[in-house]
Specification:
alpha/beta
Length: 483
């Protein structure tokens, strides 16, 4: 009996030890989880605080531009100084880059006008038009037309060069074949191969698609998450359009075409309900002091032009697509009425004032609290919750406040990076796109646009909002009648 009791005591003690260990592990696991949550919350609070400061600075900048717009000469001088400062920053970043294995990568964004070297993986490397510095056509880019590497011009820094039609060579990367990098700025094309010590690109793929390139050890494959098989580029980029016309000239030409389209339209929108999800541009910022100012907002004018049954204005000033700032689209798209026939989402301007590379995220991961992740979630939610609605995504208009803020906050990314993701994910979800960014209309980098239509550099006046509404309406008509 005594032996049995001893055995029972050992068993009980063993069970108690196991129980204590299990409780201890549970407490430890809870502690680790809570610590991770607290760290994440603290990090998010820091991002929001940083973005709050940036937003406050943007409001100051709006006032500065508004005051400058009354004096054309001072405004021209300001825009030129801003352009030159951005150009110097681009050149300095280009000179700091060292040739290495696996292509150009790192954490610096070299240019808003072409050559972007940022991060690693999908969004890294030489992007879009590959002009190293300055605006297209100002003589500071690598090619005669301002788009890309051509002829005998050399890239700044050691290890890069172009000789006639020979390969681009350097320590770690080169282009073999006769066409090397195309003069149009669209990267390596045809059957040429980009070779070096780290990677190769062959076949008919271009080196850069809308600012995303293949660098490091990552490649774009058909097996990426979701339905994404390739990155989308606009047929004509903003830089290319700027080579043809000023934004004011483009705005006049496009608006005339839009009005003709609307006058001759055959599509009937009289029974349609339209919801416009957006930020302060949708909410008609700049006009708040006018009586019944929302009647001048683009959604109201759009409804008037199309004769729609109902137009819901879901624009909130200062809101962003992602969760890193206020009134995120991804958290309020369910405010759209269920019986909506057409949904128009226009955003990204405020996101541009917020995003570092970390908050930007990647298309391969699409994690929450990043632009890529939250935009993907927004599009997926719209597709699932409004399966019968026609859905349009509208890219943001290019604005000088983005450049102005980037001058003071080096972590910010070029506006083009956001646009490229909107284009790519819209194609993946088969949504319609109205690409304002690459249209070259109402671009506040043009002094005439600021003085006539966009007095604070980002928000329109009455006439500017009407031109915007006419363009969106005409694009919707073209889409319906082409289908």
């Amino acid at each position: 009996m005594k032996k049995i009791n001893e055995i029972l005591a050992v068993v009980i003690l063993s069970l108690m030890a196991v129980l204590v260990a299990a409780v201890g592990l549970r407490i430890y696991d809870t502690y680790i989880t809570n610590s991770e949550i607290e760290t994440q919350i603290k990090k998010q609070e820091q991002v929001l605080a940083r973005n709050r400061e940036a937003n406050d600075r943007v409001q100051e900048m709006r006032q500065e531009i508004q005051e400058l717009s009354a004096d054309r000469e001072r405004l021209e001088q300001f825009l030129e100084e801003l352009r030159l400062e951005n150009q110097k920053a681009v050149q300095a970043a280009a000179q700091e880059q060292e040739p290495g294995e696996g292509g150009m990568s790192g954490n610096e964004s070299m240019s808003d006008n072409g050559l972007s070297v940022s991060g690693d993986g999908l969004e890294s490397g030489i992007s879009e038009n590959a002009a190293v510095a300055g605006e297209p056509g100002d003589g500071s880019s690598l090619s005669e037309n301002g788009y890309g590497v051509s002829e005998n011009d050399a890239m700044p820094g050691s290890g890069y060069g172009v000789s006639g039609n020979d390969a681009m060579s350097g320590s770690g990367y080169g282009v073999s074949g006769n066409d090397a990098m195309s003069g149009s700025g669209y990267g390596v094309s045809g059957n040429d191969t980009m070779s070096g010590n780290g990677f190769s690109m062959s076949g008919n793929d271009s080196m850069s698609v809308n600012g995303f390139s293949m660098s490091g050890n990552g490649t774009v494959s058909e097996n990426m998450p979701g339905a994404l098989t390739k990155l989308v580029r606009p047929e004509i980029t903003l830089e290319e359009r700027r080579q043809i016309r000023s934004s004011l000239e483009e705005t006049f030409v496009v608006n005339e075409e839009d009005q003709i389209c609307l006058e001759n339209r055959r599509t009937d929108f009289s029974g349609k309900k339209i919801a416009c999800l957006g930020d302060s541009i949708t909410a008609a910022a700049n006009l708040e002091d006018e009586e019944n100012y929302l009647s001048y907002a683009y959604p109201a004018v759009l409804g008037e032009i199309l004769g729609a049954e109902e137009v819901y204005n879901l624009g909130i000033g200062g809101s962003s697509i992602g969760r890193y700032w206020a009134d995120a689209f991804v958290e309020r798209y369910t405010d759209i009425p269920e019986d909506t026939d057409i949904i128009i989402v226009m955003g990204g301007t405020n996101d541009g004032f917020c995003l570092s590379e970390e908050e930007f995220g990647t298309l391969s991961e699409r994690t929450p609290w990043t632009f890529c992740g939250d935009l993907d979630e927004l599009m997926r939610g719209l597709r699932e919750n409004y399966p019968d609605a026609e859905i349009y995504f509208v890219t943001p208009l290019p604005n000088i406040l983005q450049d102005y803020l980037m001058r003071e906050r080096s972590y910010l990314l070029p506006q083009r990076d956001l646009v490229n993701v909107i284009l790519t994910l819209s194609a993946e979800y088969d949504f319609h796109v109205i690409d304002l960014y690459n249209s070259n209309i109402l671009d506040s980098h043009d002094v005439d646009i600021v003085t006539d239509y966009v007095p604070d550099g980002v928000h329109a006046n009455r006439e500017g909002y009407r031109i915007l509404a006419q363009h969106i309406a005409a694009e919707m008509v073209r889409n319906c009648e082409e289908e």
